[in-house]
Amino acid sequence: MLSEDVLNQLKRIAQQSPKFEACGLVDDQNRVHPVKNASSTPAQNFVFDKREYFTFLRRLHEEGAKIVCVYHTHPSGSTLPSKADKEFASRFPHPSLIVTKDSHRWVK
Ligand SMILES: [Zn+2]
User: Fold this and answer.
1) 45 CA to middle of ligand 1, Å?
2) What are phi and psi for residue 45, nearest 5 degrees?
């Protein structure tokens, strides 16, 4: 579903954020778009910064590109989804991916 190159980029993002969860989206042109994590507790969860997210959506729409998935990283190194992750995945209209520096897992 995702290219090896995209997965490696995401793992690097996880590696570069050892304390806080990093989040963003991947589009159908194999581009990774980080979005600021606006959570008040970014070590435990993620919330897209609304302004960055809507700017991204507008640009994507203008370019005719589509979202493939949303990702966020787990600094703990575990890819197990939290309760909030499962709720988010069930609400969000695109597949949801958890990434660590050396692994990944789709949230069902
Ligand atoms: Zn999570």
Assistant:
1) 6
2) -155, 180
